[in-house]
Write a structure and sequence with these properties.
The chain is an all-alpha fold and about 110 residues long. The chain has 4 helices and no strands. Helix content is about 50%, strand content about 0%. Helix 2 packs across helix 3.
Length: about 110
Amino acid sequence: MVPNLAHCVSCKKCQDEHNPRHLFERDKSILFWHGWHAFRRGLATTLHLLGVQEKDIKAILRHINVGLTMNIYVRSVETSQVAAMDSPSKKFVICNELATSANARPN
């Protein structure tokens, strides 16, 4: 676990700076870090879903061959999962439009 992402729910200090006066309990509202390999897999999968060419994904990840990239790093994603991830982005677009239209109004 990356220490900067592991904060105590009580005192809000990271695990390295935690005072032993009370038991360290990880704040679960902060996402758990799954490591760089998981990040690279997520990046490769997302780029593939966005239509980036396989050779470009291979180059971004600095792999020697496309087979490694496509067989190990790119994961298949169900359409229902893609739809679920699109839902929050649509809400962000609406929020952004409302915020920019509010700023454009004369006082």
